Amino acid sequence: MREERALVAEASNETKIAEDTQIDALFESLKVDVVRGIQDEGGVASNLVEALMLAKYLERVGDHAQNIAEWVEYALTGRYKGEVLG
């Protein structure tokens, strides 16, 4: 049973890492769009900055989810970021 939970935790952690990478890429893409929008449409700059801040907060939520997944994997398997600890 413990081995089964370890496999599930590892697969879940790999998924979270992949999703976090996608979230990071989306944030970087949005940041480029916001800068371009501010340069082109100065009147909506405050709205664009607020959208960028919201995107950054969501990106941080993704980072925290990844950290939680890594610690769950450690709790179930003794491995942290692929390395056996302790």
Description:
With 86 residues, the protein is mainly α. The protein has a single domain, classed as Methane Monooxygenase Hydroxylase, Chain G, domain 1 (Up-down Bundle), CATH 1.20.58. It has a two-stranded antiparallel ribbon. A hairpin with a 2-residue loop joins strand 1 and strand 2. Helix 1 packs antiparallel against helix 2. It is rod-shaped, with a radius of gyration of 18 Å. The mean pLDDT is 81. This is PhoU domain-containing protein. Pfam families: PhoU.
Topology (elements, then pairings):
Elements: H1 2-40, H2 45-77, E1 79-80, E2 83-84
Antiparallel strand pairs: 1-2
Helix pairs in contact: 1-2
CATH topology category name:
Methane Monooxygenase Hydroxylase, Chain G, domain 1
Number of helices: 2
Low-confidence stretches: none
Helix content: over 70%
Query: What's the architecture, going by CATH?
Result: Up-down Bundle
Domains, number = 1
What is the gyration radius calculated from CA atoms?
A: 18 Å
- The secondary structure category is mainly alpha
Write out the strand line-up for the largest beta sheet, numbering strands in chain order.
1-2
Q: Biggest sheet, in brief?
A: 2 strands, antiparallel
Roughly what is the average pLDDT, rounded to an integer? 81
Write down the overall geometry.
Answer: rod-shaped
Number of strands: 2
N-to-C order of helices and strands? HHEE
CATH domain class name: Mainly Alpha
Q: What fraction of the residues are assigned to beta strands by DSSP? A: under 5%
C-alpha termini separation: 22 Å
InterPro entries: PhoU-like_sf, PhoU_dom
Protein name: PhoU domain-containing protein
Pfam family, one: PhoU
Domain PhoU: 17-72
